[in-house]
C-alpha cells in the first residue's frame, strides 16, 4: 500500500521557519523524483520544489528560490522541505508528491499558515 505522510506544518509568524517532512512507503522510493506542491484557498495547486531520484538538480518555484530547500534521504524514505523567511503568501496546504514515468502518488497534505 502506497503512502506519503506529510508532517511539520503549523502556524508561524512572518519571517519564521518550518521544516516539512514526508514519509514514504509502499513503493521503491529511490526510483522516484520527489516534489512538494502547495495549494492556497481559491488557487490551483502549484509546484514548489522538485528533487530528482538521486537527490540532484533541485528546482524551485521563483517565489521560493533562496528561501526554501528540498532534500531527501533514500535510506529512510524521507523527503524534506526546509522553509525559511516565510511570508503570508506562503500560506497553503503543502503536498508531497512522488513521480516516476507517469505514475504519481500524493500525500494528504499539511497546512502551513503564516500569520502574525
Describe the overall structure.
The protein has 116 residues and is mainly beta. 0% of the residues lie in helices and 53% in strands. The protein is built from no helices and 11 strands. The strands form 2 sheets. Strands 2, 4, 5, 6, 9, 10 and 11 form a 7-stranded mixed beta sheet that branches. A 4-stranded antiparallel beta sheet has the order 1-3-8-7, with no helix packed on it. A hairpin with a 6-residue loop joins β4 and β5. The protein is globular and about 40 Å long.
How far the N terminus sits from the C terminus, by CA atoms, comes to: 40 Å
* Whole-angstrom Rg: 13 Å
Mean pLDDT: 96
Question: How does the overall form come out from the CA principal axes?
Answer: globular
Which segments are poorly predicted (pLDDT under 50) over 5 or more consecutive residues? none
Q: Percent of residues in helical segments?
A: under 10%
Summed up, the helix count is 0
Which sheet architecture does the biggest sheet show?
7 strands, mixed
Proportion of residues in β-strands = over 45%
Strands, count:
11
What structural category characterises the helix and strand content?
mainly beta
Amino acid at each position: 500500500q502506497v503512502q506519503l505522510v506529510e508532517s511539520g506544518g503549523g502556524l508561524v509568524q512572518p519571517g519564521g521557519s518550518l521544516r516539512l517532512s514526508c514519509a514514504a512507503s509502499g513503493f521503491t522510493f529511490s526510483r522516484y523524483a520527489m516534489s512538494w506542491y502547495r495549494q492556497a484557498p481559491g488557487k490551483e495547486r502549484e509546484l514548489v520544489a522538485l528533487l530528482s531520484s538521486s537527490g540532484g538538480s533541485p528546482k524551485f518555484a521563483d517565489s521560493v528560490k533562496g528561501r526554501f530547500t528540498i532534500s531527501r534521504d533514500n535510506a529512510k524514505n524521507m523527503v524534506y522541505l526546509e522553509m525559511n523567511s516565510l511570508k503570508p503568501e506562503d500560506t497553503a496546504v503543502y503536498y508531497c508528491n512522488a513521480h516516476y514515468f507517469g505514475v504519481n502518488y500524493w500525500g494528504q497534505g499539511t497546512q502551513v499558515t503564516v500569520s502574525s
